[in-house]
Specification:
The protein is an alpha+beta fold. It has one helix at 59-71; strands at residues 5-13, 20-25, 28-33, 45-49, 52-57. A hairpin with a 2-residue loop joins strand 2 and strand 3 (28-33). The longest helix is centred in the last third of the chain and has 13 residues, at 59-71. The chain is globular and about 40 Å long.
Length: 72
């Protein structure tokens, strides 16, 4: 079983190879590879597993998931 966590993109480094972004996970900022996500932009929510963004997520679904984590 794997765990993927939603986070909000706060900046993107297009000069990096692969392309990376700083992603905010409820106040914890981490650098994440976003190379394989189409048209990722600042303020988008992405699902991250093992340091790689694996998909985009709409804001409502991301906030609902983060609330579930907070409730635990």
């Amino acid at each position: 079983m794997c765990l993927a966590i939603p986070g909000q993109v706060i900046s993107i480094n297009h000069c990096a190879s692969p392309v990376t972004a700083k992603v905010n996970f409820s106040g914890i900022i981490r650098e994440v590879v976003v190379e394989w996500i189409d048209e990722v932009a600042v303020n988008d929510y992405v699902i991250v597993h093992a340091g790689f963004a694996i998909s985009k997520l709409d804001e409502q679904a991301a906030l609902e998931t983060l609330q579930l984590f907070a409730d635990q």
